[in-house]
Amino acid sequence: MSPWLLLLAGFIILAGAVFLARRSWLAQKATGLPLARVSVIYSDSGAWEKVSEPLFSATYGLTGKPDYVLETKKGLVPVELKPSRQSEQPYESDIMQLAAYCLLLEEDWQEHPPYGLLRYRDKTFRIEWTDELRQSLIDLMEEMRELNTVPAFKGGPLPEPQHDMTVRCHSCGFRYVCYPGETN
Fold first, then answer.
1. What is residue 155's DSSP assignment?
2. CA-CA distance, 22 to 63, in Å (whole number)?
């Protein structure tokens, strides 16, 4: 075989390898997850052979399953994916859900996460795990527990839904309370 032909074949292979490496890098960047070396150490994804157990806090009576927990140089980072959401700012409810995962990592794994990642369709938000966010979450959980002690929520009539989105009712985990005979 001619040396020029070998050189051309080597160039084509090298160009293909560079193309694939760049494509992989762009795909990783598009996820919005850190590009630094990280390891996924927990997943609630069906893509893994074994889905991880829920995190649990007896102190707060809280349990949950983040989509992922990453091990980074700065510590453990919970990741929550909301692939259908599009917004320039994260929803407060999503921030509180991510905060709950930060609290669960503190309680269940004795790890203080520096932040959490909230991934929407086109944007990733880095939510710092601060003392203020921790306290806001604890206050919210106390408020929710107080609401749960109101007699109307213990078998009595429920208040009117606080929204006009029937889609939310259809996917609500408590639909059976409002519509006892129906199944999802």
1. T
2. 40
Tokens 């905060």 found at: 99
HSE-CB of 128 using CA atoms within 13 angstroms? 3
| β-bridge partners, 75 | 72
Token code pair at residue 91: 């929803």
Q: Which tens digits make up the pLDDT trace of 130-162?
A: 999 999 999 999 988 887 665 545 555 555 666
Segments making up each domain of the chain, as ranges: 39-149, 156-184
Would you call 78 helix, strand, or coil by DSSP?
A: strand
Distances (CA, A) of 63 to 58, 120, 182: 9, 23, 27
Each residue of 70-104: pLDDT tens digit?
998 899 999 999 999 999 999 999 999 999 999 99
- Long-range CB pairs of 126-133 (<8 Å, 24+ gap) are 127/90, 127/95, 127/98, 127/99, 129/99, 129/102, 133/95, 133/99, 133/102
Is there a contact between 115 and 98 (Cβ–Cβ < 8 Å)?
no
Residues 6 or more apart in contact with residue 60 via CB below 8 angstroms:
103, 107, 138, 141
